[in-house]
Amino acid sequence: MRYLFTLLAVIPASLALATIDRRQTPDAIPDSWIVTFKQDTAVSDALAKVLALANVKPAYTYDSVAFKGFSFRGTDTNGLLNLLASVGAIQNIEPDRKVYLNAPVDYIEKRARYVSQRNAPWGLARISKRTNDPAVTSYTYDSTYQGRGVYAYVLDTGINFGHQDFGGRAVSGANYINSSLPAQDDNGHGTHVSGIIGGSTYGVAKQVNLIAVKVLDASGVGDYSGVLAAMDWVVNDATSKKRRAVANMSLGSGYYEAVNTAVANAVKAGVFFAIAAGNSNHDAALDSPASTPEACVIGASDNTDTRASFSNFGSLVDIFAPGVNILSTWIGSNTATATLSGTSMATPHAAGVAAFLLGQGVSTTAINLCSLIQSYGTMNVIQNAGVNTTTTLLNNPWPGEK
């Protein structure tokens, strides 16, 4: 839908204008814009000033500790954007942009409080052993915790809620593709990610609560205006309910300042964010939200402890995790599985470890939780990591190893 705007004022030459990014990249959504307010802004007051200047109809309004601003659609944007830039509360204006996906167990043997899941998916086995011995195929963990009482928000394509691996722990949170429907998965990617975070067979934290926040459609595509609204919802939901919370974002696109700002503020507000480094075999600094320093950015490794050929790299990558040929839950039935590769698969391993640690009651900030995860990692093992890139591999330590 397009809206006609009426310009009602002129811009005083003495005012400092907000930054306007008019670059129309291939992923830019025509006639769709995201406006960022300065973080100390009273959103209702600022919107009132905007509406007094122009006939703008916000699509989303963002008002949380993570992000403040609004998105809108409209033509005749050149004059309108210049007018909006004169509003003192506005920090910058950017084109909205598309965002995309980043691309059986025998039995469980109990040993007192410790559990060894034999013949586990190789990624789980790898993060619970210090040496890469292919003969060791068990995932060993402390059964006292397993992420119990922790909430994992999965910003993705939704979740197959009926899958038996979730045992009723997966619920719909919000849907920014179709707000009238639950966040059911019609792609499979979000279910796969969720299974790695907290599936009873394929997951790291086997008792974590999974909350679907649908920001990508059946083809795996969404937009940053919806992602920003989703992050706004996640932070408000987690903080208002005083939840121990982690969030997983196995998605991305080119560098985008507003999204990075929102992720950084969400982490500062107390929500741990695990972010996929990206699958373009280049520096993660080129992509968002992977270029957010406050997030925990995850690269992908294979079963030889080598950086996956597709995985992004660079100084912003915090740790590597298994991301090649990962078996997990899928859509189509309550027992469906699929094997996928990508930093999308590596990231939920780290989100699961974060949930596991929060379930143990570790007392730390969301930003320091990533540092804690790094300190528990297996160091100096990733081969061909890339220039200025960590060589640490994710590890889910049980108490005897800490």
TrEMBL record:
Signal peptide: 1-16
Family label: Belongs to the peptidase S8 family.
UniProt cross-references to PANTHER family, sorted A to Z: ALKALINE PROTEASE 1-RELATED, PEPTIDASE S8
Peptidase S8/S53 domain sequence ranges: 147-359
Active site annotation, chain numbering: D156 (charge relay system), H189 (charge relay system), S344 (charge relay system)
Record key words, sorted: Hydrolase, Protease, Serine protease, Signal
Taxonomy of the source species: Eukaryota, Fungi, Dikarya, Ascomycota, Pezizomycotina
GO annotation (BP), single: proteolysis
GO cellular component: extracellular region
Any GO MF annotation of the entry: serine-type endopeptidase activity
InterPro entries: PCSK9_ProteinaseK-like, Peptidase_S8/S53_dom, Peptidase_S8/S53_dom_sf, Peptidase_S8_Asp-AS, Peptidase_S8_His-AS, Peptidase_S8_Ser-AS, Peptidase_S8_subtilisin-like, Peptidase_S8_subtilisin-rel
Alphabetical list of PROSITE patterns matching this protein: SUBTILASE, SUBTILASE_ASP, SUBTILASE_HIS, SUBTILASE_SER
Listed name of the protein: Related to Cuticle-degrading protease
